[in-house]
Amino acid sequence: MTFNFIALDFETANEKRGSVIQVGLSKFRDSELVATHAVFVTPPPGMRYFLPRNTAVHGIRPEQIQGAPEWPNLLERIDRVRGNYPIVAHNASFERTVIERASEAYGITPPSWRYLCTLKLAKLSFPNESSHSLGILSGRLGLPTFAHHDAGADAEASARLLLEIARRRGADAIESFPAREWELPARKIKRTD
C-alpha cells in the first residue's frame, strides 16, 4: 500500500467547536508513520473558558495551555506540514468544523483541504459493529492501544484504522477510496477584518 496523508485530531475547551486547545497530527508517507505530534493551543478570544465535561473527557486543564500558540500560527504550521497530503480524521466533519470556527474567530478563511473520514469508512466497512467509536473499534480490530482523547494519540489511531480498512478492502492508495466516501472541503467564510 502507498498511502500518503496527515491524520488530524482536535480537543476543545468547551461546547464551542472553535475552542481548540490541542492539535494532534500524524504524518504517514508510503503507509509508514513519519511522526506524531500533539501541541497545545490558546483558544480564540471569547472561547477561552473550560467546561468540566470537556476536561473530564481529555484531562487538559487551563494551566497546561498557558503561553501556547494561537490558532493562526498553528493553522499555518499544519498547512506547511500537510503539504499536498489529504487529511484523515475520525469524524472529519467535527475536525473540519473546528478549523472553520477557529478560523472564523480570527477573521481568516479556512483552508480547502480534502478530508477522508474514518468514522464514515468504519460504518461502511463494518456495518454490524455495535460501536464505531475510535477506541472501541480499534480494540475490536486488534489495533494498538492508545491514550484516547489525547489529540496526537487519536490522530495516529485514526491513521492506523484507515490503513486497516484499506488492507481489508484491498485498497493500494488513498485515492482508491471512491469520491462518495470523502468529506467536502471547508466552506468558504468571508474575512471579517
Keywords:
globular; six-stranded mixed sheet; alpha/beta; 18% strand; 6 strands; 193 residues
Describe the structure.
This protein is α/β, with parallel strands linked by helices. It is built from six helices and six strands, in the order βββααβαβαααβ. The protein has a six-stranded mixed beta sheet with strand order 3-2-1-4-5-6, with helices on both faces. Helix 4 packs parallel to helix 6. The longest helix is centred in the C-terminal third of the chain and has 19 residues, at 151-169.
Summarize the structure.
It is built from six helices and six strands, in the order βββααβαβαααβ. It has 193 residues and is an alpha/beta fold.
What are the SSEs and their pairings?
Elements: E1 5-12, E2 20-29, E3 32-40, H1 52-58, H2 71-82, E4 87-89, H3 92-105, E5 115-117, H4 118-125, H5 134-140, H6 151-169, E6 182-183
Parallel strand pairs: 1-4, 4-5
Antiparallel strand pairs: 1-2, 2-3, 5-6
Helix pairs in contact: 4-6
- State the total count of DSSP E strands: 6
Anisotropy-based shape: globular
Strand order of the largest sheet: 3-2-1-4-5-6
N/C terminus separation? 44 Å
Q: Which series of helices and strands comes N to C?
A: EEEHHEHEHHHE
Residue-averaged pLDDT: 92
Which structural class should the secondary elements be placed in? alpha/beta
The value of Rg in angstroms is 16 Å
Biggest beta sheet summary = 6 strands, mixed
Low-confidence stretches: 189-193
Question: Helix tally?
Answer: 6
Q: What percent of the residues sit in helical stretches (DSSP H or I)?
A: 25-40%
Q: Determine the strand fraction and express it as a percent band.
A: 15-25%
